[in-house]
Amino acid sequence: MNVWRRGVVVGVDGSDAGYRALDWAATEAVRHDARLTVLGAYVVPVTPGSVGYGVGPDDLRAQAEDVVGGALRRLAATRTRWPGSVPDPEDVDGDVVRSSAAAALVQRSCTSDLVVVGRRGLSTFDRVVLGSVSSAVSAMAAGAVAVVPGDVEAEPVWRVVAGVGRDDRAGHVLGLAFEEAERSGAPLVVVHALEQERVAGLTADELAWVQRYRDDVTTGLREEAERWSEKFPRVRWSLEVRPGPAADVLLRAADPRTVLVVGGRRHTPLAGRILGSVPDRLVRHAPCPVIVAHEQH
């Protein structure tokens, strides 16, 4: 069983979404025997009319420190009520940096096992088009990122779902998913989406090709999963090939007690919108935490 020696970093901003992310990150740190860093960030506005313009950097830093301090007090209260549910005090750090939240978390993704960020609603134009902090971090991080919806409780995981394709990222996604399933004591479902255009053939030859493709995918992914199963023998796992676009298939497989694990390639949030990135859609719409398994180099 691997130990996360680099630790878990969670971004907080005093919002309900940030607190939900904090609670989930604390539970995740306990599951993986990892240290937890609670990170606050602030920027000094230079544009007249922008929020915080005219406030001195010392005051802005003090506000960020208050947010981190409140998060640490929240963990202490949880520790008192439910011992063992959050890391011990000596395994928790608080830190404040002068940076945008997204940039600070992306930077920390280079040196941590997991970065956790909360997801707010998508009612404003800039969040839909240009991306929220959670979308930016999940798209641009150098390591694994978990995006936690604002209404998800830090409760036991019922199921881990890994979305995999036929590419070189499948092994990395499966490794993280098997480890998450083992640590959570939950079953793992490995899901591959068979795009609709691949199953829309009308001729006998086309249908035969689809069946061969499906058989090849199933065989290849099963062999890869079996290799990881040897490393994590206690994990109960199954493999499913389901028809439909990948994001739709994975969203249908998710509920609030699920953890979704998918692969990702670094890109700008706007590119993810334009190109229809599967991880980008999942982190914006999934009802459960989504771990985007960027591979560190």
UniProtKB/TrEMBL annotation:
Domain UspA, first and last residues per copy: 8-149, 159-293
One Pfam family from the record: Usp
Record InterPro entries: Rossmann-like_a/b/a_fold (IPR014729), Universal_stress_UspA (IPR006015), UspA (IPR006016)
Family named by the database record: Belongs to the universal stress protein A family.
Protein name per Swiss-Prot or TrEMBL: UspA domain-containing protein
Organism of origin: Isoptericola variabilis (strain 225)
